[in-house]
Amino acid sequence: xxxxxxxxxxxxxxxxxxxxxxxxxxxxxxxxxxxxxxxxxxxxxxxxxxxxxxxxxxxxxxxxxxxxxxxxxxxxxxxxxxxxxxxxxxxxxxxxxxxxxxxxxxxxxxxxxxxxxxxxxxxxxxxxxxxxxxxxxxxxxxxxxxxxxxxxxxxxxxxxxxxxxxxxxxxxxxxxxxxxxxxxxxxxxxxxxxxxxxxxxxxxxxxxxxxxxxxxxxxxxxxxxxxxxxxxxxxxxxxxxxxxxxxxxxxxxxxxxxxxxxxxxxxxxxxxxxxxxxxxxxxxxxxxxxxxxxxxxxxxxxxxxxxxxxxxxxxxxxxxxxxxxxxxxxxxxxxxxxxxxxxxxxxxxxxxxxxxxxxxxxxxxxxxxxxxxxxxxxxxxxxxxxxxxxxxxxxxxxxxxxxxxxx
Length: 407
Known about the structure:
It contains 13 helices and 18 strands. The protein is an alpha/beta fold. The chain has a nine-stranded mixed β-sheet.
């Protein structure tokens, strides 16, 4: 069996009744090396050794996939396919924008993370040059009750002839032979993906969030999507779909924010409240518009931390109470941590160099309250903010919620 997954004939054997019984037995084995070894030895007495290995491989991948898919235990994966697959919440968020598209092509389908969500509302032509992941994608769509809307088409997406369609989605590969392509490269290249808009008006391209914005043509919209504090992906929407140059989206809330990146309130000194914007806001260049919307300001024109006079809850930034604002000097910070009974300490650094683990060891905070030490700059000077989490009751806190897309 190849390292990445079963061959097509072997996958078909797994789908046969005997293969399904074997897969059920392999899935029931505890996730323990000794238990797997004993069960594998026993099962090889009744099934071919390569099929047993394939079944245990699928059982392992299904366990790993549970964080991405609610029906992972009914799905099929290759290792590379699972690593690159779009998780369920991201795919559903993106597919919502395809509403009204009766027919869609899903190019570079892989194991079908996006296909599943797209097929919930559209007829989808699934195209991939690797027949095993493509066959898995059809089965995975069936696990979500959507197989009837999927038509698989094996082939190189740059060579196949596509029928008339309402929209095209492509997630080009950024790994090959298990290795990430260097320099933000992809297969097919980004330029080829963007060129699809010359044949179809509605095109969406999923890409890595580190994409060079200079490579995105005028008129396209770049959406940056984060979950929690982690920036996950970028999606490029063709001019027929675009409603803003950039968009920040935060999941699972589904909150979306757009604005004019040139809108930057006048910077000012740190205030009693600090807002640490989502990486989606920062990457989209929307720190200034967010500050304007929240009634805040940047404490340094080149740094994303925002100050505010009043506490404001928003999905687009983490809110912190500033207990003390002071120049960056370790002896002053040590004393401030003691004054505010800070012990467990997170250190957030932005715009200021430093060895964070080493700084933490030198500070040796010993209080009982959890705090956050912000290493940054204020008006160009090294600065420190000793902060605490206001929890669920920072006072009478207005909430800044979602700004939904218009298209």
